[in-house]
Amino acid sequence: MSQATLGDDDLFGEAATEMRTDVEDSLELARAALPEADAIWDVEADNALGVLNGLRSALDVGEATDHLYDAKKWYTMGERADAFEDGDDLAAEIERVEELIDSVETAHEQAGELASTLPQIRGELDDADDE
């Protein structure tokens, strides 16, 4: 069928399908960009600071936030256009991925803060021992 014979409803249906696919693809890319579970569990180092730095690196979400942004953008466009017959599953998946990214980013920040604090605490304890 040529595009000249497609009606507005057909074009809208095709666009809605493509929009849903864009949301699903972006969510898949976001999940794939998150760290592997073993990468944050199996951290090797010679000391606590090395472990914390390794953990902080392993907890990097990479481009997951960019992909989530794209998913939310296309989902919002589809919702406003009333393009999804049932977009509840997309909304729920967006929320799940967003919560997971938030959890990983929070852990990343906490590991970074502890890694920054640990050398200072070690220095203070060394000074206390010298006194």
Automatic annotation (TrEMBL):
Region ranges (Disordered): 107-131
A Pfam family it matches: DUF5790
Record's protein name: Uncharacterized protein
